[in-house]
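User: My collaborator sent over this chain with a note saying "see what the structure looks like." That's all I know about it. Can you take a look?
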Amino acid sequence: MLLLYFLAAVVFLNCVYYFIFSKFAFSSSTNADASDSAPVSLIVCAKNEAANLQKYIPLWLEQQYPTYELILINDASTDNTLEVMEQFAEQDSRIKIVNVENNEAFWASKKYALTLGIKRAANNQLVFTDADCRPASSLWLSHMAAHFSEEKEVILGYGGYEKQPGLLNQLIRFETVHTAMQYFGYAAVGMPYMGVGRNLAYTSRVYYENNGFISHIKLPSGDDDLLVNETATASNTSLCLEPEAFTYSIPKQTFKAWIRQKRRHISTASRYKSKHKLLLGVYFLSNLLFWLLAIAALVFSDWRIALVLIGFRFLMQYIVVGKSAKRLKEETLIPLLPFYELFLVCLQLSIFITKSTSKNSRWK
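Assistant: Without extra context I'll predict from the sequence alone. Here is the result:
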């Protein structure tokens, strides 16, 4: 019977988190007033991204926004990235190029390159995306910029991944939805803790008041989530959840590459604020314990009571996580939510056990 009590306690804890995430999943529309269209600097850092720039620069230039500049940062590329940038710059005066050469102190550091790009920006409102990101529509920039106001200076957007055949693609997209559900959910209850550089905006004032990336300049990751973790508050943060404002990237093509990416991302979590690390740690532990206790209770306890508790927990998962997936246009993931979650728990556990964080200082 004690086993069932433990299972019930963990299910209750799971439901507390689902309640937090429901603030995002079931929140009302976040449409912002775009009447005050202040000039914006759209900043993209690229390293050996010539092919992607050929595809996406036209999409960035087609954004329906009255006044903006496109700052393209060539981060010491060895392909013809710079040549592609220059070709487009000859045709459109809105493009500004920052050509970064390797610096002995900041060799292959994306944060160093971004710092030079931000310094080049002529406007206070900065919007960021990656060189391999496709905006969902020509209204992406307009929606993101519309959330800026005198009070709101950090804008969190959604950066998803393109749908492709195969299990790996489904797992990557689920992990992306699951992560977004968390950072949007916490931000919705006044505890913003991260954002993704694939779709992020903040003011130069926020950046400079935080001394940029100086506190974590030596880490290969964190130009997005750590900057948000240090600067975002309940009052200065807004969520941009319009589907037209999503961005989409090409996902990793092998499990090895994806796991390496996840190890690098997880390595920055140790630099989060203590309250955020506690919330994220307890959430992961509660999910892990649920699966362990659920199996144990079905085998060693009254399986009927255990089945009721497990069923209730899955019901809450389908309601909240399913609604989050639907809101982020990932409805096809909903039928297999428990399977994806189990895989993600096992993946995270293996990363924590091995502690195999990358030591490579290169950002790509």
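A starting point for your reply to your collaborator: Residues 11 and 313 are 6 Å apart (CA to CA).
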